[in-house]
Amino acid sequence: MEDWRWMSAGDLSRGIGSGEIDPVALTETFLDAIEAHALSPRIYARTTPERARAEARAAAGRAKAGRRRSPLDGVPVSWKDLFDSAGVATEAGSRLLEGRVPAHDATVLRNATEAGLVCLGKTHMTELAFSGIGLNPMTGSPPCVNDEEAVSGGSSSGAATSVGFGLAAAATGSDTGGSIRAPAAWNDLVGLKTGPGALPMEGVVPLCPRFDTLGPLARNVEDASLFWAAMAGRTAPDLEGASIEGRRFLALETVAMEDLDPAVDQGYRAAVERLRGAGAVIEWREIPAVARAVAQSSIVFAAEAYAVWRDTIEARPEVMYPPVRERFRGGRDVSAPDYLAAWRVIDECREAYHAAAAGFDAVILPTCPILPPNRHRLETEEDYFVSRNLMTLRNTRIGNYLGLTGLTLPTGTPSVGCLLQTPAGSEARLLRLGRAAERALA
């Protein structure tokens, strides 16, 4: 049973379907592991054992009757602590929301529950989702699976580590500037950032509504595809027969390749060559609109985040982690004309980007330009916190500003990911492409 913790969600599902795995025993295996694991208090904000056991018993009954609701019926997963869960605290990693208990599940949690997935509990996250490194001294800072002295990436920090440490079969996250893709990359997982509006946001604690997106973190592309479909209440795309041969990739230069950590540079370039060796056509190109769009980040992102949270923050600013609080306050003095002018630039950049990327199956780039930084330095050196946070999200936020769909894949180099980006609304196509790329990178 211990082996179940490290199996893919798809393989667990096939075991349930064949009768070799009992959903109740599977759920107990994960709950026992969470209880016993020394790091679980830094990964899970709270577990939901009563709900999990009830859902597992129902899944077991359906499996015996041959009436499973979805391919992941009976598979235990974790939920980031910004997805509302009925009767269970949802605090978004912040003492500002301490004791907040919603009456209803978020729509995506309700969809997944109807598909038969088992909810293990809620995972730690960066405070109000406003940091990419995964440091949260106020409630919990999960460690990276490759270096327990380093952070795990955020803001979906506990989501990634719940899977990475074998404490969930898959996890959910949100992504406003890289919060799924950064922790997925640093913990050697697959992470899917869906396009704007691809998954319903009802019952999800917001950060920046014009940029907020949702998606899964998983062991492989099949798991990400199945979990995304469950969250959406739809059928998963068919990944069989996906091929990378003849696919055209634009390898993004410009800002995305600047100041890379040597290990990231080497690991990413090796991954690109493996894609080429598998038959992909790779063209290295600059897209000037990317740098121009990213330059607007200090205006639109902070302004929208502060507009959402200003009253809550300023009512009790002392309970926030100061570096995160000051990130929010960076939007305090942005004028309306500057905000609207920045959005005009972003809209122009989106049009220019799509024109430049037309004719390619995907644009590729390193997911994060740096490796996971040391937690102690982040906690004690404010300038280090600011610089590492900006660098962590530099590449991923390209997809948020340009309204794209993104999928990060492990490269085989620890904590180095390869990010594939396609236009919004192309999740099914991207997952097929990602499945083919995954085989090439394995």
Architecture overview:
This protein folds into two domains: 225 residues, Amidase signature (AS) domain (Amidase signature (AS) enzymes, Alpha-Beta Complex), CATH 3.90.1300; 169 residues, Amidase signature (AS) enzymes (Alpha-Beta Complex), CATH 3.90.1300.10. The protein has 442 residues and is an alpha+beta fold. The mean pLDDT is 97. It is globular, with a radius of gyration of 20 Å. The longest helix is centred in the C-terminal third of the chain and has 22 residues. Helix 2 packs antiparallel against helix 4 and helix 11 packs across helix 12. It has 17 helices and 13 strands. The strands form three sheets. The protein has an eight-stranded mixed beta sheet, with helices on both faces.
Task: Walk me through the topology.
Layout: H1 9-18, H2 23-36, H3 40-43, E1 44-47, H4 49-65, E2 76-80, H5 107-114, E3 118-123, E4 143-144, E5 147-151, H6 157-164, E6 171-175, H7 181-186, E7 190-193, E8 213-218, H8 221-232, E9 248-252, H9 262-277, E10 281-285, H10 288-294, H11 297-315, H12 322-329, H13 336-357, E11 362-366, H14 375-380, H15 382-393, H16 396-401, E12 404-410, E13 417-423, H17 427-441
Parallel strand pairs: 2-3, 9-10, 9-11
Antiparallel strand pairs: 1-3, 4-5, 6-8, 7-8, 7-12, 11-13, 12-13
